[in-house]
Amino acid sequence: MKVFRNSTTALMIAAVAVLATLGSGCGYIKKVIAKDKLNQGMIEYNKGNYRNAQEFFKDASDTDPNNPTTWLCLGATRVKDYRKEIDNAKKKEIANDALKDYQNALSLANGNCGVIDNALSYMAVIYDDLRNDDRNDVRSVDEWRKTMEQRATNACMKRDIQAQSFYGLGVDYWKCSYDQTTRYQDKALSANDQFHYRKMDYSPEALADRQKAQACVTKGFEYFEKALVIDPEYTQAMFYKGLLYRELQKLIKEEAKRKEFEQMALKIAAEANALQKKKEAAAAEQRAHNQAAPTS
After folding, report:
1. Is the per-residue pLDDT at 20 higher than 70?
2. Predicted confidence (pLDDT) per residue in 184-234, tens digit
3. Which of 91, 151, 199, 295 is deepest in the core (most CB within 10 A)?
4. What number does CATH give the domain 28-157?
């Protein structure tokens, strides 16, 4: 009986080992099948057959939902879809599906900088498209800003990408203020001074618009400064920083302060122009040097 018990135990251990092997084998087979679907989808995508590619990517994601590359590829096909969709409701639905794909990829990135860069870049593009299609879509505006902030601060991103992201946020907040101050423009006064003081305190609604413009100016300065810390010669960030001083000029009634802001705007514009000309001269010199260099 003792021998029988030992034999039974040995058989049970062997059975468990076989089951474990089969289980891991099934997982491996699924990954192989999903990878094949992914590769076929990429072939179709590169041929321009986006619908076929999308079906392959869907199959791949169903078979192995833990591969971030599959979600990136599926999201790319949906971006193609929503950009050619003419029905706004359908377009928004497809765009939101694409966002879910990129969020899935991001959650599976596990520190993979290529995946993180791709996902955040496309998410920013999608939110930007959504907010441009519907200026009242506050959620898309907020999510675009959050995504750009992630791109700007993520350790995976190259320094130039971080600077560009901060710059993009700065421009967005400059436009936020500009849109408000333009609504209160006096055409007669603007004929002589396009930066004239805007009367934005005659009603609670006007005062709220002024406060919004001031808040946007503050955020704009914050992001342009961050861009310039990364790249002190970022001339476009310098130009827009000068334009923020023009926004302050519109929001301040006190003439001395208005003059101060005007001088700051002019000073920054002159510095940015000088730096831009220096860069262009250096680039022209480099091109001339390359053309004169002997070819082997």
Report:
1. no
2. 999 999 999 999 999 999 999 999 999 999 999 999 999 999 999 999 999
3. 151
4. 1.25.40.10
